[in-house]
């Protein structure tokens, strides 16, 4: 129990920290509801996704970390480093969807409670600029000249974030992992990089900060369409209203651009489910999956619930845009739950950073070189964990 923490208090870490991520509103409301009903305060601590990952893998041995964390499901692969409690899968069967549960399983063991589904990329379109939703890249390019002459950026994306590279990589037949290791030194990677570099050079694509400038300029009408995550839908819907449409990321040369997807769920570091707080933590997790709370996520901030009942309700009665969000979730490919994916993200970001000046071939080489170095660090880290080393 961390210093100064009251007995009647649970601490949850999360990364709902960007101005466009309105999910924090519901997380805080659920905490207030739980406190009112159970008499236990839930203290939420926000941090960046990078800080969250770093802190979870360097928790002190004395149990002074958080009681739980709400994280993207791939962080379940921190089960050894963060000493995560295993979750009773049978207690969740029939409540959460099977696909949601699978996102937090490793080797058949469940290391988290999925709360939300999604985390996939979609195309958001301002219907003022695109009266017809572009289904493929050729349609988008035909509109690009008209939009650029009017001072409108045809397509915006944040290429500083490696996750946004995935749909372009899959459109050229690629995937960042092969046989359990990161594999970025491929023709598909180079073709995707070359495609993006041509788009940037021609002005058809602009890379802008995804947490601020991209959203602001799109909301103000200066960008025709953007590629970003389903988690931004509520923010954009509030800003654009009827002008906003959700669509698939345009196909490239007849090939679908497939996003990754995952879940967001609760994990329990330092074996907290076996601590004196275990009963309160299980009650909080069950409350998160209740119809009441799942509807809050869906209705208040437009997220995709993990519970079977809430998801069925959206599919039968949700708006056209919400149904398209779910359609694109079903068309996505689950994110690998592997400790090596961090090497993939770091490697891809290095190559994307170098792409404009160095070109596709050198960026491809830089990606794999950086990924290989990080994979070696992961190997060493796992070896040290097995030897009982501390990383405080």
From TrEMBL:
Pfam family, one: SBP_bac_8
GO biological process terms held by the UniProt record: maltodextrin transmembrane transport; maltose transport
GO cellular component: ATP-binding cassette (ABC) transporter complex, substrate-binding subunit-containing
Transport among keywords: yes
Gene Ontology MF term list: maltose binding
SUPFAM superfamilies: Periplasmic binding protein-like II (SSF53850)
InterPro entries assigned to the protein according to its UniProt record, in alphabetical order: SBP
Keywords: Signal, Transport
PANTHER family associated with the record: MALTOSE-BINDING PERIPLASMIC PROTEIN, MALTOSE_MALTODEXTRIN-BINDING PERIPLASMIC PROTEIN
Family: Belongs to the bacterial solute-binding protein 1 family.
Protein name: Extracellular solute-binding protein
């Amino acid at each position: 129990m961390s210093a100064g923490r009251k007995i009647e208090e649970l601490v949850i870490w999360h990364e709902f920290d960007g101005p466009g991520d309105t999910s924090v509103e519901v997380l805080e409301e659920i905490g207030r509801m739980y406190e009112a009903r159970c008499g236990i305060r839930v203290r939420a601590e926000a941090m960046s996704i990078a800080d969250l990952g770093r802190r979870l893998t360097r928790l002190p041995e004395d149990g002074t970390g958080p009681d739980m964390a709400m994280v993207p499901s791939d962080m379940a692969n921190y089960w050894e480093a963060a000493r995560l409690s295993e979750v009773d899968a049978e207690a969740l069967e029939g409540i959460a969807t099977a696909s949601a549960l699978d996102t937090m399983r490793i080797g058949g063991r469940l290391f988290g409670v999925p709360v939300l589904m999604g985390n996939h990329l979609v195309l958001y379109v301002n219907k003022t600029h695109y009266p017809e939703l572009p289904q493929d890249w050729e349609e988008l390019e035909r509109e690009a000249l008209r939009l650029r002459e009017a001072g409108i950026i045809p397509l915006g994306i944040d290429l500083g974030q490696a996750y946004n590279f995935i749909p372009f990589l899959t459109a050229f037949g690629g995937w960042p992992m092969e046989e359990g290791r990161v594999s970025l030194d491929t023709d598909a990677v180079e073709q995707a990089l070359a495609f993006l570099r041509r788009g940037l050079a021609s002005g058809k694509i602009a890379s802008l900060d995804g947490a601020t400038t991209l959203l602001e300029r799109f909301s103000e009408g200066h960008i025709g369409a953007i590629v970003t995550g389903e988690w931004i839908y509520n923010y954009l819907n509030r800003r654009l209203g009827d002008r906003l449409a959700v669509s698939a990321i345009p196909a490239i040369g007849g090939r679908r651009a497939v996003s990754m997807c995952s879940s967001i769920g609760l994990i329990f570091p330092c074996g907290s489910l076996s601590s004196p707080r275990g009963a309160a933590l299980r009650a909080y997790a069950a409350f998160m999956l209740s119809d009441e709370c799942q509807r809050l996520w869906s209705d208040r901030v437009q997220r995709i619930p993990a519970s079977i009942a809430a998801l069925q309700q959206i599919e039968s009665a949700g708006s056209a845009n919400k149904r398209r969000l779910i359609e694109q979730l079903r068309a996505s490919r689950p994110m690998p739950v592997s400790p090596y994916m961090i090497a993939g993200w770091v490697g891809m970001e290095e190559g994307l950073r170098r792409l404009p000046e160095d070109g596709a071939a050198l960026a491809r080489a830089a990606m794999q070189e950086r990924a290989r170095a990080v994979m070696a660090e992961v190997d060493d880290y796992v070896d040290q964990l097995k030897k009982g080393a501390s990383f405080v």
